Amino acid sequence: MTLDATIRAVQSKIGVAVDGNPGPQTWAAIHRAIVGDVPAAGVGKLADERSERTIATLLPQVQPLARALVESAATIGISIKVISGTRTYDEQNVLYEQGRTNSGRIVTNARGGYSNHNFGIAFDIGVFEGGRYLEESPAYKAVGALGMKLGLDWGGSWRTITDEPHFQIRPAWAREMSERDMLAELRARRARGQSAFA
Ligand SMILES: [Zn+2]
Q: pTM for the whole thing?
């Protein structure tokens, strides 16, 4: 089943409007369907403390998916943490200057407002082994496959610059858009005070 069909099926089952445009209720139901029953309905089993601090910076629609990814990686023996979430435009600009006007290596090509991380819809994971962070590991590809199964966009599947630790949710209105057009619309929505998912 495609993600869209899954969303519609879940929406019809839990009795909310079937529009293929999932709200928090639908995502929570998808999360429950994937990982089983969870303590507080719609919230999901909490991840580790560090991941939860990062997950708290994401939009409510994205949070259950980030937790589901941590849990489903654990079921195949891979320990991951959500290590990077939402950044303000200012924080993004500081990151952009790294390796350019500041020291360090270049870590992003996006200025403030030009990264999906500026809108609460994107997060990065780290693979850990025995508590140690692994910058590179074949496990990132396995986690990428799990993420795509959950309906997340995975940075490792991108055609140009691949970014294996990166995951994001594409709002329904952006399904047919280029990344560039989607970011332009996200900036416009931010300027209007409108949610990324409305
Ligand atoms: Zn990222």
A: 0.80
d(CA 61, CA 21): 11
Q: Is 141 helix (H, G, I), strand (E, B) or coil?
A: helix
Q: How far apart are CA 117 and CA 102, in angstroms?
A: 21
The domains found in the chain, sorted by start residue, are 46-85+120-192 (3.30.1380.10)
Ligand 1 center to 2 CA (angstroms):
24
Closest CA to 151 of 64, 52, 78: 64
| pLDDT attached to residue 40 | 41
Mean predicted lDDT score pLDDT of the chain: 88
User: What are residue 168's DSSP bridge partners?
Assistant: 122, 153
Name the residue with tokens 């990686």: 73
- Cβ atoms of 171 and 196 closer than 8 Å: yes
For residue 170, report the distance from its CA to the centre of ligand 1, in Å: 14
Q: For residue 29, give both structure tokens.
A: 């139901």
